[in-house]
Every structure is written in structure tokens, then in C-alpha cells.
Design brief:
Layout: H1 2-19, H2 22-88, H3 90-101, E1 109-115, E2 120-123, H4 140-146, E3 155-156, E4 160-161, E5 168-178, E6 181-190, H5 192-195, E7 208-214, E8 219-223, E9 247-253, E10 260-268, E11 273-280, H6 281-284, H7 286-315, H8 320-334, E12 340-344, E13 350-353, H9 355-361, H10 365-368, H11 385-396, E14 399-406, E15 412-422, E16 431-438, H12 440-454, H13 464-481, E17 485-492, H14 495-502, H15 504-521, E18 527-532, E19 535-541, H16 546-561, E20 564-566, E21 569-571, E22 575-582, H17 589-605, E23 610-613, H18 616-635, E24 641-650, E25 656-667, E26 671-673, H19 675-685, H20 688-709, E27 715-719, H21 735-742, E28 749-753, H22 755-760, H23 763-774, E29 778-784, H24 791-796, E30 801-804, H25 806-810, H26 816-831, E31 835-839, H27 844-853, E32 857-859, H28 869-879
Parallel strand pairs: 22-23, 25-27, 27-28, 28-29, 29-30, 30-31, 31-32
Antiparallel strand pairs: 1-2, 1-6, 3-5, 4-5, 5-6, 7-8, 7-11, 9-10, 10-11, 12-13, 12-16, 14-15, 15-16, 17-19, 17-22, 18-19, 20-21, 24-25, 24-32, 25-26
Length: 880
């Protein structure tokens, strides 16, 4: 009985030994290790993809925030300028809005003004109709500023649907403060799509989103746009916590779409905004699915090899070591086949590579085996980098970092290299495994972002940011080398007319061709940049004297002036160029650009299609022009203007039958300012429209008095600037409406126009002149003979008077030729049934010659200079 029990125990023990033999235990351990390693690699790959997505979205969110911050700062500065202009005068404010539309070309906007009661009083796209009240007192931005106690601050509202535009917009606002008290709100409205448009540069795949979210959780912009997204708020997001770091990442499921995403965010607490970029987990893990299939295939292959090895070992223990080594190598090479891998000995000799390595470098396994691992290191690597890598691996057994890899054809690509050492065991030797991750696409994406931040999208020229970087660099180099530096500021003349007539597509083609011509006109060392619109600059380093810059400027003018083929038409466009030098004119980038800009404006003022070198007097003249412009904005409301009247005498009877109304400006600080010093500025700024309407009203008031005092046939002439013809001709404030409301008697008013107005020949000018003449208003052509009028225009437009310019009158006493010319002008006018007024009559001899020539009327200091109304009445009383 005992013997049977002992025998059974021995058999059971032998069975256990067979089951737990070293071969079985080793096979089981290897099988577990193989699948554990595959699982580890799968988890690691998944974690890596998710981590890279988190890093990538976090970087994109930061770039998105940086770009948006620059837009917010520009809008804040724009609001400050608008508020300052509004506090001065509403017409100046409207001009400011129009002027700034061309400067903020990358943000379409609407400007609104709300009074202190919450009523809309101005909108740049649709002003309230007369009598219409648009109440915005319930808007968030109005309530915030109203309750701020007079504190000046920038406020960014939640998206609102405009009561006027009926579109969603983000409101950027500042309060209007008068004497420290709330007086209304200045509003600049920007569409959410455009505010977040920068995100389009990296949001280009399904599942990728970018949002701008306030600290309250309110979504104010989203790319791509999603119906209803602007009307909801988010919650339970890490960036909404007050202690959240400035940037970070997280995973969440979108409540509106039900899509799980990896999000990166960047907080901007100074504006209460959060910039969030997300990629769907499905999109991020798309490469993982391929990797998983390959890894599982490798693991299955390893399992099959293990089974074959197990079977072979049972047949021949002699082959066990060789089969175990082959299995280990197969596991190392094929378990991570989606990334290039290299297996080396401890001294760095390459033992084997996987197929991904061959695809990445062009080397086959046979060509690379036996070579040193550092032989594939690129020549562009930092000196000593490979030696430091080898020393670190020898000391620590591992290393990771960026390294340039050389392909078989000699080209190189950036890679992230990870080196690990696998310890020896019973069936193999120690080996090192290097994992090579190709970073080419990542570097290309970074390069695209850098390029977009520094180069103009249309012309690919350096933009304003890169221009200032290079200009500051060249100025600093000029200080060190003592070489001269010049800057050209180029502005295309009448470029707006091309856009308005041929369209913006043709305008872009013109800019591209102008870019090519400018670039072909400069040296290889020069920098051509586009600042904005049709404004270009050229940095000219190492310029010995201004003559070199002048030659280049002249070449640019000649090439730009050549005709352009646009829309099957030949288009002529010229340019105005300003030249400034460093350090003569300025020693810093901002000041040098201002000097070149002033010189360009001087060239444009002198007739365009020319270049001008900066002089200190130009800056002084510009400062004077700006001061006059600012003073003009308040002069009319302050009652600083007055009208003087100069008699127009019938040369045959000596009777005063007409008067020309002439404006005078008595500045409270600077005293009398001559019309020649402010009329051109008023025309350039558009203020001439309000000033001209005031002159007309004052002159008509005086006309009514003098027709009762002097006679019903008495006439007053009023000058109308060419710029005034651009104003609406059919509104309640138009000249025609003012004259019609006054019931001006037929033949009592003369409108004096210049030859420039006559030669415009556009529909508005012709229509206004026709309406004047239909109402019994006579038309006089001022300064006749100094321009380019033709007889056909005089006859076609039925001109009533021509006024011979005083330059002709002064030359009457010089000789018979000048007298004959004057007689010819008078005879020609009479033949066309046009009466003649001679301006600038200074002497009795001039008057006698004009009488003998048959001239109808005379005007000048010989009779009486321009005087106030009371003095005019005294003069008329004395001569009658």
C-alpha cells in the first residue's frame, strides 16, 4: 500500500517537473514578455500621439492668442483715436472712420456711437433714419461702461446680433468721458468669423476646432463656425478656474457635437479671454490604428516564432541559443515597424535595421550592417554633438534628443533620436536600440507659421513686422560700419481708382506686377517690403550718398510708370517716392520711416510721379498742416470764420453791381490766417464741404440785405471747390437744397468754379451745374487762362462768365502782345455770349486798357480790396 502511494507521488512530481520545466517556463515567460512588450508599445504609442496632440494644440492656441492680441491692441488704439475725434467734432469723426478703413485692412468692422441714454446716434454702415430711435441701453457693453463710475477701460462683449446690421458681432468698446463723467460709448463691431480667422492657418481637417472663450465661459468665436455655438456658454473647463496656469491641455467631449477632443488652451487674463484649439481623438489616433495592426502582427509573428522555436528545441537542444537570439532580434526589429529602428552592439556597430529605416534613409539592411552608427549623422549637426551622445550612452545607457540624419543620397532630415540599452540575459548579448522619428513635417509646419508671421500674403514680401526688424538691424550695422543707409517710401498714385473701376482682383495683379518691377530696380543687398495696401518700402544699406538712392528711386519711378495690362486694358499708374537717410535725417527705425513718409507726401503734393528727398522743412510743413487741420475742425463751430466782400465794377458805368464772397479766418491764438494757408488743407481733409455750406448760407443772408439796400439786380458770387462736387448733390444739406429753401431770385447768385472742376466732366459735376442753371444760378469760370479749358467745354456747359486771371492783367502794360492776347480772350468770350470779369486790376492804366478792349467788369485793389460787409456798404455809398 505504501509502495503504491510512493509511486503515485513520484509520477505526480515528475509531471509537475515536466510542466514547469525550464523550457516551458522560459517559453511561457517569453510569450508573456512578447505580448506585454507589444501592449506596452501600443500604450506608449497611444500616449505619445495624445501627448504630441496636447503639445501641438497648446502651441497653436498660443500662436492664435498672440495674433489675436495684436488685433485687440490695434482695435483698442483705434477706439482711443475714434473717441478723441468724436470729442472734437462729428464730421472729423466720420472722416477718421473713413481714413482708418484703409489702415485696418485685415479686420472688417462697423463703428457705432451710443449716447449716454443708450440711443444709437451713429453707425458706419446704416445710420438711424430721421426720427428713428435705436435703443441699445440693454446691451451688456453699455451697462458695463455706464456703471463703471467714469473709469476708462476696454471692454469686449459677448457676441450680439446687431439691431441695425442683424448680424452676429463682437463689440470692442470704450466709454466717452466728458469732464470725467460718462457720456456714451464708442463701439467697434467685428464679426466672430473674422476675429478668429487666423485659426484657419492650422485648422484645416475635419475634427479640428479653434474657439475664443471669455472667462465667463461664453463662446465669442469658433472656427469652423457651428450653428448656435455663439449663443451658448461652456463650463467645467480647466482654463476657467482662477488658479489655472496660463497654458495647458485637457481632454473633453464637445457638448454641441458629442466629439471627444484633445484641447490646448492659452489664457489671456488681461482681456478675460481664453484661446482653445482642439483635435478630435479619432483624428489624433488615426495613425495609432495602423501602428496597432502592425504591432499585433509582429506580436503574432513573435508568438508563431516562439511556437516553432519551442517545437525545434524539443527536437534539438543544440539549436536553442540560435533560435532564441533570432526570436529576440525579430521581436526588437518588427515590434515597432512604424518608426525607423537601428540595433547596434555596445561599441555602436550596426547589427540590423527595420524596413522603416530603409524607407527613411535609402539604405538596405545589407548596405548598413557592420557600419558604425555615427556614420549616418548629418554634417549640419552641432560640433561635438555625436561625441556627447556616445559619452552619455556609455555612462547612462540611454540618450534622447534632436539629431540630423544623413540619407544615402547625401540629403539630411531632422529627427528625434531615442537610444536605449537592452540588458543581457541567458539567451543573448547586450544590444542598443535607436528609435528615429522623422520631424520633417513638424519643421515644415513651423516654417509655414514663421513665414506667415513675417511675409505679406499677396506679394510674399517682408511685412511691416519683418521690415522693422531688418531696418533696425541695418541701422545698427550702419552705426558700427559708418556706412550710409537710405530708406525709400513708395506709394502708388491713384491705385484706389484701379480697384474701384477694374475690381480688387485686378488691383492685386497690379500690386504683384509693381512688386516685380520694384524688386528688379534694386540691388541684391536691398530689402523690399510691403507695409500696407499700395505702400512699399526699400531699405538701401551701404549707400555712399543720397545720389545713389536718388538714382534707384528714379529707376523705380520709370519702371512703375510703364503701362500695365489689366482686364484687356492698358492701365497707367505712377508712384510717389520719399527718400530719407540715416543718420542724417533720423537714427531710429520709426523716425526714419516718418521722414521717408513725409518726403513721399511732398512728392505727391508736387504733382506725383516723382521722388523727393526729406528735408527738415518738410516735417515742419507737415506739422503745420496737421495743426491747421486740427484747428479747422473746431474753427467753424467756434465762429472763427468771417466773410469779406470785394466789389465787382461795371467798367463802362463805374457802378458796383456784384460782390465776391471771400472767407477769412481769425485764429484766436495765431491771428489772421491767409486762405492760401488753409483752403488746400480743408479740401484735403474734406472739411471744405461744411465750410463751403457755411459760406453759401452767410452770403445768401447778406444778398437779401443788399438787394433791398443796393438794388434788386445786385449779385453775389460764391466759390465752389472741386472737392465740394464730390458731396451728395441731392440731400437736405446740398447746395441745391439750400438755395431752393432760400428762394434765391433768378440771376442773383453766381457760382464760381475752377477749370479743374470743369475738366472732371463726371456725371455729378455735370448734373449739379445743370441744376444750378435750371434754378437761375449763373456760373463763372475762375482763373481763366491758367489751366487747360477748351472752347467746346465753355459752349457745352453754357458758362455765363469767365474771370481772366490776374497774371494776364499784370502783364497788360508790358507790351502790345499781352494786350492783344487779352483782347483775343475778351473777343472769344463775347463771340460765345460769355461776359468777362478781369481780376487783379491794380492801376488806372490797366482799367483803361480793359475798357478799350471791351471787358465787361473789373475787380481788384484799384477799386477796393476785400472788406467787411459794413465797409463794403460804405464803399458802394461813396461811389454812387
Amino acid at each position: 500500500m505504501l509502495e503504491r502511494s510512493t509511486t503515485g507521488y513520484g509520477k505526480a512530481l515528475q509531471g509537475l517537473r515536466q510542466v514547469f520545466s525550464p523550457l516551458n517556463l522560459g517559453a511561457a515567460a517569453w510569450l508573456i514578455a512578447t505580448w506585454a512588450f507589444s501592449a506596452f508599445q501600443l500604450v506608449s504609442e497611444r500616449d505619445r500621439l495624445l501627448h504630441e496632440a496636447a503639445v501641438r494644440t497648446q502651441a497653436q492656441a498660443q500662436a492664435f492668442a498672440a495674433y489675436s492680441k495684436s488685433s485687440i491692441l490695434r482695435l483698442s488704439e483705434f477706439l482711443l483715436d475714434l473717441r478723441a475725434s468724436w470729442l472734437v467734432s462729428q464730421p472729423g469723426f466720420v472722416d477718421m472712420v473713413r481714413e482708418r478703413e484703409s489702415l485696418v485692412v485685415d479686420l472688417s468692422f462697423q463703428v457705432s456711437v451710443i449716447d449716454k441714454h443708450g440711443l444709437l446716434i451713429y453707425s458706419s454702415i446704416a445710420a438711424p433714419a430721421p426720427g428713428e430711435k435705436v435703443d441699445l441701453s440693454g446691451r451688456e457693453h453699455f451697462r458695463v461702461h455706464q456703471s463703471a463710475g467714469g473709469r476708462d477701460m476696454l471692454f469686449i462683449s459677448d457676441p450680439v446680433k446687431g439691431k441695425v446690421s442683424r448680424k452676429w458681432s463682437i463689440q470692442f468698446t470704450r466709454p466717452i468721458l466728458r469732464a470725467g463723467s460718462f457720456d456714451g460709448v464708442i463701439v467697434v463691431s467685428v464679426s466672430p468669423e473674422q476675429f478668429a480667422s487666423f485659426a484657419q492657418t492650422f485648422i484645416n481637417r475635419d475634427g479640428e476646432v479653434a474657439s475664443v472663450i471669455k472667462d465667463s465661459g461664453q463662446v465669442i468665436a469658433r472656427v469652423p463656425a457651428l450653428e448656435g455655438s455663439l449663443a451658448r456658454a461652456v463650463s467645467n473647463r480647466p482654463y476657467l478656474a482662477s488658479v489655472a496656469p496660463q497654458s495647458g491641455s485637457y481632454r473633453a467631449v464637445s457638448g454641441s457635437e458629442g466629439v471627444e477632443r484633445v484641447f490646448g488652451y492659452y489664457r489671456m487674463p488681461e482681456f478675460g479671454l481664453n484661446f482653445v484649439v482642439g483635435e478630435s481623438v479619432g483624428l489624433v489616433l488615426a495613425p495609432y490604428e495602423v501602428y496597432r495592426r502592425v504591432a499585433l502582427a509582429g506580436a503574432i509573428a513573435s508568438t508563431l516564432l516562439l511556437g516553432l522555436l519551442y517545437y525545434s528545441l524539443r527536437r534539438s537542444m543544440a539549436d536553442r541559443r540560435r533560435h532564441m537570439e533570432e526570436m529576440r532580434l525579430a521581436s526588437l526589429v518588427y515590434s515597432s515597424s512604424s518608426e525607423a529602428m537601428v540595433v547596434t552592439s555596445l561599441d555602436g556597430t550596426i547589427i540590423d535595421v527595420n524596413p522603416a529605416f530603409a524607407a527613411a534613409t535609402g539604405y538596405t539592411a545589407g548596405e548598413i550592417k557592420g557600419r558604425a552608427g555615427h556614420s549616418i549623422s548629418g554634417a549640419s549637426n552641432e560640433a561635438g554633438l555625436v561625441d556627447r551622445l556616445r559619452a552619455t550612452v556609455q555612462a547612462k545607457g540611454r540618450w534622447s534628443g534632436e539629431l540630423s540624419i544623413r540619407r544615402k543620397d547625401g540629403s539630411e532630415f531632422p529627427a528625434y533620436l531615442t537610444v536605449d540599452t537592452y540588458l543581457a540575459h541567458a539567451y543573448g548579448e547586450r544590444r542598443r536600440v535607436a528609435l528615429i522619428h522623422d520631424m520633417t513635417e513638424k519643421r515644415q509646419a513651423e516654417q509655414v507659421i514663421r513665414h506667415q508671421a513675417n511675409f505679406d500674403a499677396l506679394t510674399d514680401l517682408p511685412n511691416r513686422r519683418l521690415f522693422f526688424d531688418r531696418l533696425e538691424y541695418e541701422i545698427e550695422r550702419s552705426r558700427r560700419t559708418k556706412d550710409g543707409l537710405a530708406l525709400l517710401f513708395i506709394d502708388l498714385d491713384r491705385f484706389k481708382e484701379v480697384n474701384d473701376t477694374l475690381g480688387h482682383d485686378q488691383g492685386d495683379l497690379l500690386l504683384l506686377e509693381a512688386t516685380r518691377r520694384i524688386a528688379a530696380s534694386v540691388r541684391a543687398s536691398d530689402t523690399v517690403a510691403r507695409l500696407a495696401g499700395d505702400e512699399f518700402t526699400v531699405i538701401l544699406p551701404s549707400v555712399g550718398d543720397s545720389a545713389v538712392a536718388a538714382d534707384i528711386a528714379q529707376t523705380i519711378l520709370e519702371r512703375i510708370a510703364a503701362p500695365y495690362h489689366l482686364a484687356s486694358e492698358l492701365v497707367a499708374v505712377s508712384a510717389s517716392v520719399g527718400v530719407a537717410t540715416c543718420p542724417k535725417d533720423a537714427d531710429n527705425a520709426e523716425a526714419l520711416l516718418v521722414c521717408a513718409d513725409q518726403a513721399m507726401f511732398a512728392a505727391k503734393a508736387e504733382g506725383r510721379n516723382r521722388w523727393k528727398i526729406f528735408t527738415p522743412s518738410l516735417l515742419q510743413a507737415e506739422r503745420e498742416r496737421l495743426r491747421i487741420t486740427q484747428d479747422l475742425r473746431t474753427a467753424l463751430a467756434a465762429g472763427q470764420f468771417a466773410l469779406h466782400y470785394q466789389p465787382i465794377v461795371n467798367l463802362h458805368t463805374g457802378k458796383v453791381c456784384k460782390a465776391e464772397a471771400l472767407i477769412r479766418w481769425d485764429h484766436p491764438v495765431r491771428g489772421p490766417i491767409q486762405p492760401a494757408d488753409f483752403i488746400a488743407v480743408a479740401e484735403e481733409s474734406g472739411l471744405i464741404i461744411d465750410i463751403g455750406r457755411w459760406v453759401l448760407t452767410e452770403a445768401l443772408d447778406q444778398l437779401s440785405r443788399w438787394q433791398m439796400l443796393i438794388g434788386k439786380d445786385f449779385q453775389i458770387s460764391v466759390n465752389k471747390s472741386p472737392v465740394e462736387f464730390c458731396a451728395p448733390s441731392n440731400g437736405t444739406e446740398s447746395w441745391s437744397s439750400v438755395i431752393e429753401r432760400r428762394n434765391v431770385p433768378v440771376g442773383s447768385l453766381i457760382i464760381e468754379i475752377t477749370e479743374g472742376s470743369l475738366m472732371e466732366q463726371n456725371a455729378d459735376v455735370m448734373d449739379q451745374l445743370s441744376r444750378f442753371q435750371a434754378a437761375g444760378i449763373e456760373v463763372a469760370l475762375d482763373d481763366f487762362g491758367t489751366g487747360y479749358s477748351s472752347l467746346s467745354y465753355l459752349r457745352r456747359l453754357d458758362i455765363d462768365y469767365i474771370k481772366i486771371d490776374q497774371s494776364f492783367i499784370r502783364s497788360l502794360t508790358r507790351g502790345p502782345d499781352d494786350v492783344a492776347l487779352c483782347r483775343a480772350i475778351i473777343s472769344m468770350a463775347h463771340a460765345l455770349r460769355i461776359r468777362v470779369i478781369a481780376e487783379g486790376v491794380e492801376t488806372g492804366l490797366q482799367r483803361d486798357i480793359l475798357v478799350a478792349a471791351g471787358c465787361d467788369y473789373g475787380q481788384g485793389h484799384f477799386f477796393c480790396p476785400p472788406v467787411e460787409a459794413s465797409e463794403f456798404e460804405a464803399f458802394v455809398g461813396a461811389v454812387t
